[in-house]
Structures are given as structure tokens and as C-alpha cells.
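Predict fold of Cof-type HAD-IIB family hydrolase; 257 aa.
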Amino acid sequence: MSKEMVLFDIDGTLVDKEKRIPASAKQAITDLKKRGIEVAVATGRPAFLFDDICNELGIDSYVCFSGQYVVYKGEVIYENEIIEDEVLRLHEKAEAAGYPMIFMTAEEMKATVAEHPHVFEGLQRLRFDYPETDPKFHIGNKIFQALLFCDESSEEGMRCIEDRSRFIRWHQFACDVLPGGGSKAVGIGKLLDAAGISQRNTYAFGDGPNDVEMLQFAGVGIAMENAVAELKKAADHITDHVEQDGVAKGLRHFGLI
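Predicted 3D structure, encoded as C-alpha cells:
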């Protein structure tokens, strides 16, 4: 029998707006593992901001930073940091324009400025605390993802070298900055290679704009009812809202549980 894997985004997919995992989703993941189906997380978050979720669900394989850092069964198998000179250029332009940033390594994140209202507002949506401030944190560290806090009209002017970085907006005042060409799909490909699982035997659940490539790459892409319109267009199936047992219902629809 061919091996299968199911991948889950976190925010809006595995957890609701209160950042709680629905009981039906917990049971569904337990049932998947009992059937020998591998389970992994694929998220834009850094690992240090979802290790509690993995521990609660007994998951030790994940794709984080929207594909830039991949772990299979507890072992790091892929790293893709933003090119150093791109990091420096981004910070220089952001600082000159008065835009705050957050830079993330595999272990921690630091803000370039303290107590900025746009940072507070963006992180409040994710229910993350405002990080410590270190305007030089990005220098000499492996940066896998950055957060840039500016409005959409200013985003284009912040791009430094074409195709060297990628911007994914998720808030009125915030967007992710990733290495050029980086995506969840790329990271998932690395994960499947390590697991020895065919792309066609994968199922992926998501809700946000950084999930588009993931759903297109997976054998079956499943969007939550609460997903953005762009993702629903890319999905093979739309399940119910995260707060209406969408994960469990989607898995049942395909006979996985």
C-alpha cells in the first residue's frame, strides 16, 4: 500500500480565531496516525511559535517559514535563508522610509524598533507578543523570513532586487518577506523526498494566500470555508469553516478517516 501524507496550515486551519485546536481536529489527527497516514504541519510561522501545537498533536514533521525550513521526524532536512545582501538592503530601505521590520532565525525573532503601532496591530491578529528589539539582529544571522510593516501602496517600492525576495501580504499593514522562489510547495517537496511519499498521495489543508502553491502542488488541495477567495479557486475541494469541524469533514470527504 502506498504511503500517504496530510499537511495542515495552522492559523485558520488547525486553530480557530482564538488560537484553539477544535476537538474534532485533534481526534481526526489521532485517527490519521492510527491508519498509518503521516501528518505534518506547513505554516508561515517559525517553529518556536508552534512547537506547543506540535507537542499537543504529537507531530514531529513540519514545513515552516512558508517553506524555508523543513524538519522530518525531528531532523532538519532543508534550510533556505534570505540572501544576506538582500536582508541588508531591505533593512536599509525600511529604516530610511520609517517602516519597522521583524527578522526571524530558526530560534528567535527580533524587531527593528520598539512599540510601533503597526507591529502591535499585526501581531495582535496572530496573538503573538511584541518581540525584543535589536536593530542589528539581522546582521550575521541566518534570516529565513522577515515581516515588513507598511501599507500595500508602499510595498512595491520596498522591493530591492527582482526575484531575490518575495512579498506575501497578510494584513493591511504587514507582509511576509521570503527568499525569491521560496514557497510551501518547495518545502513540501523536500519533505516528501525525505519521507519517500509521492506527490500524488498528499492532501493539503489551508486558508491563506501563502497556501496557494501548497494546494496546487498537493495531490489534493483542500481550502477551508474561511479561506481567501484566491485559495478557494486553487482548491480541489472546499470544506467547512475551521470552527465548524472543517478539518474532520474534509478528511472524511476523502475517506482518510
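Residues 84-179 form a domain with the Hypothetical Protein, Haloacid Dehalogenase-like Hydrolase; Chain: A; domain 2 fold (CATH 3.30.1240.10).
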